Every structure is written in C-alpha cells, then in structure tokens.
C-alpha cells in the first residue's frame, strides 16, 4: 500500500505543478525575419507607428537572434508605442527593451489598466554590438488584458523589443495531498 501512496503523491505533485504553470514567453525566434507580426500565442500586436510590425534580426538580443521591429528599418523611435491585447488576463509582464544607447530611468514604460512600471537607469546588460538591455517588469494583484509598451518622446532613443513574458494567477487547484483523499 505504501508504494501506491507514494505514486499518488508524485502524480498529484506533477499535476499541481502543470496546472499552476501559467507562463507564456514570446521571444520571436520561432518566426522568420521579415514575417509580419499581428498575433502570437493569443497576443495581438499593434502600434502607433503607422508601419507594419515585423520579425527583425541584426542586433544583439536577450535571447536568440530575432526581435520585434518595424518594416522601415527595424527600430522603434522615441515616443512610439506598442499595444498588446491579450486573449486572457495576466497579472505579470516582463519586457526586454533593447536600446542603441543608454537611457534615463523611466524612458521605457509598461502601462496596464492596473498600473505601470518603468526601467531603471542601470542597464541589465551591454551587448557586444553596443546595445543596452533594459528589462521592465510589472506585477499586480489585479489582472489586466492589455499593455502599452512605450518610450520617452526623445529623438535620440531608438529601440527594439525582445522577450515578453506573461504570467497569470494560478487557478484554484486542490493541494497535492488532498488528491489522496479522493
């Protein structure tokens, strides 16, 4: 009887961890450079640039080789915004902004209905090509279904977006040990 109980505990733990795994990472590397971006994994992309969003490559990134760019030279300019609409509600978003130059604190912003977050003045990394990585993270107890990624309205800023990580609050699931009571 003891081996059966052990197996049930392991199965319940695996089920618990799978059910509570609600992370989505969009790193743009599953797509070909030049490919238009409108929707990826339930996230609708648009912008205020008046240009098409595309998969781009050519600059160093936080992961892989591809990133989100625009179809006129692959970079977003200061003051431009990227709009994300989600097919489900999330409570966490992390975005890798990659800039060609050092920026001030607050030059990159994530805005949701639940609040906003800004970059630190200290970059997370400096790449071999001279690019700067700024990771901006927003987390809230209140779920949100959209986010705006923006930069300061400064003509010196040009940037791309690489990894976007979204997480939603775990659903109510029985504790692993309670599965043994069934």
What does this structure look like?
By secondary structure, the protein is mainly beta. It is 10% helix and 46% strand. The protein contains one helix and twelve strands; from the N terminus they run αββββββββββββ. Strands 1, 2, 3, 6, 7, 8, 9, 10, 11 and 12 form a ten-stranded antiparallel sheet that branches. The protein has a two-stranded antiparallel sheet with strand order 4-5. Strand 10 and strand 11 form a beta hairpin. The longest helix is centred in the N-terminal third of the chain and has 18 residues. The radius of gyration is 20 Å and the shape is globular. About 9% of the residues have low confidence.
Q: Distance N terminus to C terminus?
A: 16 Å
Tally of extended strands? 12
Rg, alpha carbons: 20 Å
Portion in strands: over 45%
What are the segments in which pLDDT stays under 50 over at least 5 consecutive residues? 4-19
Tell me, briefly, the overall form. globular
- Give the overall average pLDDT: 86
Give the topology string: H per helix, E per strand.
HEEEEEEEEEEEE
Question: Number of DSSP helices?
Answer: 1
Q: Specify the structural class.
A: mainly beta
Characterize the main sheet. Answer: 10 strands, antiparallel
Binned, the helix content reads under 10%
Structural key phrases:
182 residues; mainly beta; two-stranded antiparallel ribbon; 10% helix; 46% strand
